[in-house]
Amino acid sequence: MRILIVEDDPILLDGLTVGLKLAGFTPDAVSSCADAEAALRASDYEAVVLDIMLPDGSGIDLLAQRRREHDATPILLLTARDQVADRIAGLNAGADDYLGKPFDLDELAARLRAIQRRGSGRASATLRWQGVVIDPATLSVSRDDLPINLTRREFTILRLLMERPGAVIGKPALEEAIYGWQEGVESNAVEVHIHNLRAKLGPGIVQTVRGIGYRVGGEQP
Amino acid sequence: MNSMRARLLVILLLTTGAVWLSAAAWIYWSTQARVEQVLDARLREAARMVDSLITDHRIEIASAAEAIEGLDVERMTDEPYSHQLSCQIWSLAGSLVGRSEAAPRERLASSDDGFSQTAIDGETWRVYTVLNSERGVQVMVGDNLKVRQSLVNDVMTGTLLPMTLVLPVAGLLIWLSVQRGLRPLDRMAALLARRHANDLRPVDLPDAPGELRPALDAINGLFGRVASARDREKSFTAFAAHELKTPLAGLKTQAQIALASDDPKTSRHALEQIVSGVDRSSRMVRQLLDLAAADANEERDVAGAADAATVVRDAIRSVESLAARRNVGIEAQGLPDGKVACDRALATTALRNILENAILHSPAGETVRIAASTSDQKTLFRVEDGGPGMTEDDLAHARARFYRGTHHDGAGSGLGLAIVDTIMRRAGGSLTLANQEGAGFTATLHFPKA
Asked: Fewer CB within 10 Å: C terminus or N terminus of chain A?
């Protein structure tokens, strides 16, 4: 799950990047409003972690600006000012959730998954299709109750495909979802991951729509 | 007397009363004088008339005095004032020739001619005497002063009675006027009483009278100062919360990573981040305490005297380990003589913060230079670094608390220059910041000499 982290403290930013990567996210990190705005225009994120006090402005202003521009990306505010009035101000400006510093990394990950889930219009925490069950919270996958081990990127691809069974997702979108800025994309990486996924899940789950991309489900071949 | 209303009321009642009383006295005296004048004129006329009647032989001397009665009744028909005039005619030899009915038998006048006053049977008479040498008589016409007095008294009663009856009404009107006149004060008091403790907006009393303006302006001025002090406190608290909680969040996150990760490289990286995070947090805490100390000293006079050379030595010693870690050299160009007019600990804190900034912004391998110079009144510490300097915008805001610059690396707390600025202003000195030509940055502390 591709997310953007906006935080100006280098140690916390490093911790968020490493920690959320461990929790199965694909994070990009910026430390100012200006960089955040540029990143949000350039890429699609499934969620944003946003600090309020940034060196070049307030995260709340950035948030309000994005909402004015009809950007519905789920945003979680991260701040030291966790008084009730501040939380209300943040939520009123269009935040989807609010977490006071210091926080628990697992709670942050759970809340990010929750706002992403709500953003994609889904209530259940797990995704199911034809005996395949995935749980984004624990990064676990099973088919017919047999657990399957996936790498983080294989998991991300499977989750994206299972969000909307039948919908075709192109290779560039999958690449963007699994690679942050710092990571180089190998040209056949997506094909390799799809190949591994099929090997682990068994046949009939992930289909190739030639020339367009991949999907889970749809009419059986 | 603490009530303005009661005071105003008493003052107004007393002054009104005094005006009223002096008006009464004036009326009394002037009525008396007028009555005297008019009645004296009547006495003279009456006496002359009787005298002329005698001289012309138009009337017997003995009955001449009675003529006055007709005159009297004719003139004063009102019952209370009749029989006012009495007339006696005396021979020059001293015998009473004739008298009017109301006249006493005793001689009315003591003098031979003109006005005189005589007391007869305890009553005072005012008399006009005409000497008629041709017929050898004296004509005396007089009236009783008691009657004159009762005339004045009647006038006074007629004037004062209505005035006295009106007095309570006047008091009531004064009371109502005072009430009405002080209403703006009541309105202001009510406005202030209704206020919430957190409401520090200026008091708005659009039609306040000019007399209330100074008080209102003073109150609004006070509100303004309290509000801005509270805002500063609020934003300081918000900043301090952010600055203290953010490193804690970083530490917790890194610790959770170290605990959760199976990868030794990741764990090690997280632990290193924790160590550097603790270093930064302790610097932040120390700076917050320094700032509190500098602020607290605003309360009392701290004009101590610190040996300039000791300040430089202490400050350098406190940043040596930081400089060694960052691989930045420190070069002091001669130690200054004399003393600076500042508390030693505060002066050292100021210089140390400047040195820390210089070290943190210098590229590795560079040297931070500190030079001291003295003039008649000042001792200057100049600290130069080889760093990138500040933008114009940063220069303008550098002294604000928690301002960290638009391109900070996260290492600073944004408090260093705020602390230095507070200390320098406190010591009566100043802090100047300037980019050097080309590259580098200079911060100068101007201490007054002790």
From this structure: C
A134 and A184 share one domain: yes
pLDDT digits (tens, 9 = 90+) for A116-151: 888 777 777 788 888 888 888 888 888 888 888 888
Does residue A36 surpass a pLDDT of 90?
yes
Q: Does B252 contact A105 at a Cβ distance shorter than 8 Å?
A: yes
Structure tokens at B244: 């203290």
CB contact under 8 A, A105 and B410: no
Q: Are residues A42 and A93 in the same domain?
A: yes
* A17 assigned to some structural domain: yes
Which of B257, B277, B406 is closest, CB to CB, to A22?
B257
| The CATH classification of domain B208-296, taken from the options 1.10.287, 1.10.10, 2.60.40, 1.20.5 | 1.10.287
For the stretch A56-67, pLDDT in tens is 888 999 999 999
For residue B47, give both structure tokens.
Answer: 């006496």
Contacts of B407 in chain A (CB under 8 A): 55
**Superfamily (CATH) of domain B4-169:** PAS domain (3.30.450.20)
For A61-111, write each residue's pLDDT tens digit. 999 999 998 888 999 998 777 677 778 888 888 899 989 888 999 999 999
- B387 in A contact zone (CB under 8 Å): no
Residues of chain B in contact with residue A106, where contact means CB-CB under 8 angstroms, are 256
Say how many domains are in chain A. 2
Report helix, strand or coil for B398.
coil
So what's the pLDDT on residue A50? 94
How high is the mean pLDDT in each 10-residue block of chain B (450 residues)?
80 89 90 89 88 80 70 49 74 82 79 83 86 85 85 87 86 88 84 84 80 86 86 78 86 93 91 90 86 69 77 91 90 84 88 91 90 87 88 84 69 81 88 87 89
Nearest CA in chain A to B414: A55
Please check whether residue A221 lies inside any domain of the structure. Answer: no
Given CB atoms, is B237 within the 8 Å cutoff of chain A?
no
Domain that holds residue A85: 2-119
Please report the sign of the dihedral spanned by the C-alpha atoms of residue B321, residue B322, residue B328, residue B332: negative
DSSP state of B80: G
Sequence letter at residue B209 = P
Q: The domain B302-448 is classified under which CATH number: 1.10.580.10, 1.10.260.40, 3.30.565.10, 3.40.630.10?
A: 3.30.565.10
Which has the closest alpha carbon to B340: B359, B362, B315?
A: B315
Tokens linked to B187? 């309105």
Distance in angstroms (rounded) separating the CA atoms of residues B191 and B184: 10
How many angstroms away from the CA of B384 is the closest CA of chain A? 25
Cβ-Cβ contacts under 8 Å for B256 (sequence gap 6 or more): A15, A19, A104, A105, A106
β-bridge partners, B446: B380, B430
Examine the domain organization and report whether A93 and A133 are in the same domain. Answer: no
The torsion angle over the Cα atoms of residues B404, B407, B412 and B414, rounded to 10 degrees, is 0
Are A11 and B250 within 8 A, CB to CB?
yes
Verify cis geometry, omega within 30 degrees of 0, for the bond prior to B104.
no
CA A198 to chain B, closest CA, distance in angstroms equals 27
CA distances for A171 relative to B136, B333, B401, angstroms: 160, 64, 49
Q: Does B260 lie at the interface with A, CB-CB under 8 angstroms?
A: yes
Q: State whether residue B235 sits within 8 Å of chain A by CB.
A: no
**Residue A137 shares a structural domain with residue A55:** no
Instruction: Look at B252 and A103 and tell me if their CB atoms are within 8 Å.
Output: yes
